[in-house]
Design brief:
heterodimer, A: mainly alpha, 9 helices, B: 258 residues, six-stranded mixed beta sheet, binds adenosine-5'-triphosphate, binds magnesium ion
Chain lengths: 219, 258
């Protein structure tokens, strides 16, 4: 079996385009899913039973469905239910946002809940309002606990974006698999794909490790 | 520092807090059963009694961290309000010190003390920090202003917590077992700060198991059991001549022999 690595260089522009879409999917999903997660957590912790239940259902639904199923569902079912046609990229994005928002919602909720009742009481006893206690005491402390988890979610998300290739979103995985089926260079393309994902993912993982050590909670 | 008016001697004492048949229920459970008590300006009242007898509950009800189920608590002549805004105004005038300190771990000692005046009173940062610095000096922590709580001993943390409460210039201080979580060697430094505060004329309610402190510093001692006040009176009376056998039992369990 002869290997022809020039194929990778030949398709460099397509691959680069795929990389950019992968990054775009990751970044945009996080930009949506962080406020999304905060809103879900606030709803969940609010005194309104309705808001809290809606949030709970949303989180438990999307956290427990395989992402690939959500992707297919968004692609085939959502247009019928909503009666609108959505491009593949946006469809993939929506599926990712639903999934990651649910995860982030749980992350923020756990972060806020991890702050002891006594800390809240200490703020209230000074005469602070509930909102001031949130802003000055709970959120700054919760952030330190949430940040490492968000960073891990980020790295998973970066890899999980490859799942939207199944609905022909032209991100890295899809592009690489397309080239493979056109050129029959299976070994080369799968290897190239692995190397690119790894080169992009490894520094992120290292960054996450650093964030984990930096924000380790000291009680 | 002249934050606290000296004890008026001779003139009729004015009540700061009056508890009138205060009840507190947790579901079916009666945590406070018709507790009546009066705390005058400049008085130090120690609450003693077995675990679960309702001492902490009374303190939490005093600054409305818990709503009461019956009776009335008067602060400065007025029943505790029920509207959130008004409750906050009342809390600003009461300082609270917790058993577990509850310092804010993400803030330095200085900012722990300054945060109250800054967020609640809207005091400018420099002025709030100036006040915080003076208060930390007062609790003998002038050299620890920049330390974070995790780098302070328990006794030091509790003194920061006292300074934090004082920063709001409260009219009454509520202490909930302030030395129970401390190593024996740091208990003294906290009690000394509290004693100095009492001598300045601060009105204080202190839940404590430190009988020597109650004996020497308290003006009055109230003995709790099962959500009621078993008896109350001067420390001499409670420690030398307890009226009830239950009080005698409780004191002897603590190894108190007069
Ligand atoms: N949030 C709550 N829900 C239900 N029961 C409670 C609650 N808080 C306190 N209690 C109960 O009320 C009783 C009085 O509690 P409290 O904390 O006032 O006791 P205490 O006298 O301070 O005891 P300790 O010396 O152990 O601190 C206890 O039996 C406790 O279990
Ligand atoms: Mg208690």
């Amino acid at each position: 079996m002869t290997l022809d690595w020039s194929i990778v260089w030949e398709y460099r522009e397509d691959l680069l385009h795929g990389v950019l879409l992968t990054i775009a999917l990751t970044v945009i999903t996080m930009i949506v899913a962080i406020p999304g997660g905060i809103i879900l957590a606030m709803m969940r912790l609010s005194r309104s039973r309705i808001l809290s239940t809606i949030s709970l259902c949303f989180v438990e639904l999307f956290r427990n469905l395989p992402l690939i199923l959500v992707v297919y569902w968004a692609f085939y079912v959502m247009p019928i239910v909503l009666g609108i046609q959505i491009a593949a990229f946006e469809t993939g994005l929506i599926a990712l946002c639903l999934n990651v928002s649910a995860y982030n919602g749980e992350t923020f909720r756990a972060g806020i809940n991890s702050i002891r009742e006594g800390q809240v009481n200490a703020g209230l006893a000074l005469g602070m309002s509930r909102w001031q206690v949130m802003r000055e005491i709970v959120i700054p402390q919760a952030t330190r606990r949430v940040l490492p988890v968000l960073a891990s979610t980020w790295v998973s998300l970066f890899k999980d974006t490859s799942l939207v290739s199944v609905i022909a979103v032209g991100e890295l995985a899809h592009v690489a698999l397309q080239i493979r089926s056109q050129t029959f260079r299976v070994m080369e393309m799968l290897t190239a794909m692995a190397v690119i994902y790894w080169l992009l993912g490894y520094p992120q993982a290292k960054l996450v490790d650093w964030i984990h050590s930096k924000f380790k909670v000291a009680e | 520092m002249t934050m606290i008016a000296p004890k008026e001697s001779g003139s009729t004492p004015s009540p700061v807090l009056i508890y009138e048949k205060v009840r507190k229920l947790y579901g079916e459970f009666v945590a406070l059963d018709e507790v009546s008590l009066r705390v005058d300006a400049g008085e130090v009242v120690c609450l003693i009694g077995p675990s679960g007898s309702g001492k902490s509950t009374l303190l939490r009800c005093t600054n409305a961290l818990e709503p009461i189920s019956g009776g009335t608590i008067y602060f400065d002549g007025r029943a505790l309000p029920s509207v959130d805004r008004d409750i906050r105004k009342v809390r600003q005038r009461m300082g609270m010190v917790f058993q577990n300190f509850e310092l804010f771990p993400h803030k330095s000692a200085l900012d722990n003390v300054a945060i109250g005046p800054m967020t609640v009173l809207g005091m400018p940062k420099t002025q709030a920090r100036e006040r915080a610095r003076a208060l930390l000096a007062k609790v003998n922590l002038a050299d620890k202003v920049d330390s974070f709580p995790s780098n302070l001993s328990g006794g030091q943390q509790q003194r920061v917590a006292i300074a934090r409460a004082l920063a709001m210039e409260p009219e009454v201080m509520l202490f909930d077992e302030p030395t129970s979580a401390l190593d024996p060697e740091t208990i003294g430094e906290v009690l000394n700060v509290m004693k100095a505060l009492a001598e300045e004329g601060m009105t204080m309610i202190v839940v404590t198991h430190e009988m020597a402190f109650a004996r020497r510093v308290a003006d009055r001692v109230a003995v709790f059991e099962h959500g009621t006040i078993l008896e109350h009176g001067s420390p001499e009376q409670i420690f030398e001549n307890p009226e009830t056998a239950r009080t005698r039992d409780f004191l002897s369990h603590l190894g108190w022999d007069g």
